[in-house]
Amino acid sequence: MKRSPAITRHLLARQVAERVDGLSLRLAKAAVDALTDSIADTLADEGVIQLNGFGTFSVRHRSARQTLHPRTRKPISIPAANVPHFAPSPQLRQRVAAAIASSEVGNGSQAFFPSE
Fold first, then answer.
1. Closest CA to 91 of 54, 41, 60, 42
2. How many other CB atoms sit within 10 Å of the CB of residue 28?
3. pTM here?
4. Cα(55)–Cα(46) distance, integer angstroms
């Protein structure tokens, strides 16, 4: 399956500017920056961001643990950490699944129907 290139902050701002009539690229960049800064600040305060129809951003606590170094096989200690987490909404999951399914059918993919 062919992967699309990553969308950068600049490309995201360009898409926002194209979708909103009268919105300049400069203001779209400011809006994207404000959104990402707000999400980061809320997560830094261990808050939760719920965007209906899109998903939920939250912080999860990962406990300290012991594991083995993959190359040397010596035991190492991994400290506890708080990590950002994103849980997509059911609507987002369905939209992505439908888009991927339609692109596979449109490309003539035979992944699910092997030749006999």
1. 54
2. 20
3. 0.75
4. 17
